[in-house]
TrEMBL record:
It holds the Pfam family DPBB_1. Keywords: Lipoprotein, Signal. It comes from Magnetospirillum gryphiswaldense (strain DSM 6361 / JCM 21280 / NBRC 15271 / MSR-1). Belongs to the RlpA family. Residues 1-22 form the signal peptide. InterPro entries: RlpA-like_DPBB, RlpA-like_sf, RplA. Residues 25-107 form the RlpA-like protein double-psi beta-barrel domain. It comes from the Bacteria. PANTHER family: ENDOLYTIC PEPTIDOGLYCAN TRANSGLYCOSYLASE RLPA, ENDOLYTIC PEPTIDOGLYCAN TRANSGLYCOSYLASE RLPA-RELATED. This is Rare lipoprotein A.
Amino acid sequence: MLRLIAAMIVSCACIYSASAFAVQTTEASWYGLKYHGKRTASGEKFDVRAMTAAHPTLPLGSVVEVRHGRKSVMVRINDRCGRCGIDLSPAAADRLGMRHLGRASVTVRPLA
């Protein structure tokens, strides 16, 4: 019985966390090149050429659209960041045209 109750609580928490995150306007930064090859929170190695990002609360493996001005990119969340809105790989920051800025205002929309 306790297992059933625990499973129901976890199910509700997962549904709530996915539905609670809608479109978010936040500040984006990008990972420094020194992190290339280091392990991420998901356990995979960080690749500066991959379309990935770190987010403080979205589930690992989530796919989001990040928009800066008229440009957008789809990234997979594979790491955590502490005080950031979203931390992009250098490749994703390049595609958005914001890498030279260091930080930029972006819109984050979950896709999957």
